[in-house]
Design brief:
The chain is an all-alpha fold and 166 residues long. It contains 9 helices and no strands. It has helices at residues 8-19, 24-37, 42-49, 53-65, 71-75, 87-98, 115-126, 132-141, 160-163. It is elongated, with a radius of gyration of 29 Å. The termini are far apart.
């Protein structure tokens, strides 16, 4: 007995989607559904697509239970739970706004912004908690080049060896 039995209209729509799939995950699901409909074993389909057998079973079950949704949604990824990405859209304009100002104006005892200061500023003023890595990536996206201050020693005179006795 096959895991998935598709109607001829569903097969036609899947083959049409196969020509221009929405993404690679949907492509794998479409191929799996078509192969299962043709009588391939779950193990063989899983091996071809380099996924587990349980994944193939899940794809078949989700496709068959989502009959109330539009066809393209039935083969697409389901909405995942979890924390949304906050840093990408939120901190870029905030950093762009503050980076040109002097940190002393915001109450810090520093003349330059550091990642830790920006992290503290975003947390205190805007209630946004982000990592210093996210701040670094945001500054890179904004094409703001910043470096830690480097303290350089003065250049040596050309006669420094002679002065040292060498």
């Amino acid at each position: 007995m096959a895991l998935v039995r598709l109607k001829s209209k569903e097969v036609a729509r899947l083959e049409k989607l196969l020509r221009v799939p929405p993404d690679t995950r949907a492509l794998k699901r479409i191929q799996a559904l078509l192969w299962l409909n043709d009588g391939e074993s779950v193990g063989m389909v899983a091996e071809r697509l380099r996924v587990t057998r349980q994944t193939v079973y899940n794809w078949g079950a989700h496709f068959l239970t989502r009959t109330d949704l539009p066809f393209e949604v039935r083969v697409a990824d389901a909405v995942r739970c979890g924390r949304p990405r906050t840093a990408l859209e939120i901190i870029d304009p905030l950093l762009e706004q503050i980076i040109e100002t002097d940190p002393r104006e915001s109450g810090y005892r520093s003349t330059i912004w550091t990642a830790l200061l920006l992290q503290d500023y975003l947390s205190r003023e805007h209630r946004v908690k982000v990592s210093t890595k996210s701040i670094g990536r945001a500054l890179e996206r904004l094409q703001i080049s910043w470096k830690r201050p480097r303290h350089t020693l003065s250049r040596r005179a050309w006669y420094w060896r002679q002065a040292k006795g060498g």
